[in-house]
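Entry 14. Structure prediction run on the chain below.
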Amino acid sequence: SASSKYHTLLTFTRLVIDWVLKGTFMKRLKPSDKAFDVPKELDDSLSVNELELNTRGARTLNNANIGTIGQLRTATYGDLRTGNKCRFGGKTRAHIQEHLIMLVEWSKKK
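Output returned:
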């Protein structure tokens, strides 16, 4: 019916606006693309535990054997997707990227 189509369109529009505003609307990455834009201010020897990630983000990095910021800096999208027990998608990527930026901001305040 027309009202059902309108409701579906309205829901989709809200989702798109939400994705754009939260920064989770991203281009599709190729397996060879770098997974993250790690700020240059972060030391490569710093543990990824300092990011204080949610469970999914922490498991994703753990399953990909990424333990330091240096390993995160060189990780590709394919590294995180291949053979990973935990799904790695846009939300997880945005969450980790957000925590990288927050860690830089926090270290500036110290």
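The CA atoms of residues 75 and 90 lie 15 Å apart.
Filed with the rest of this week's runs.
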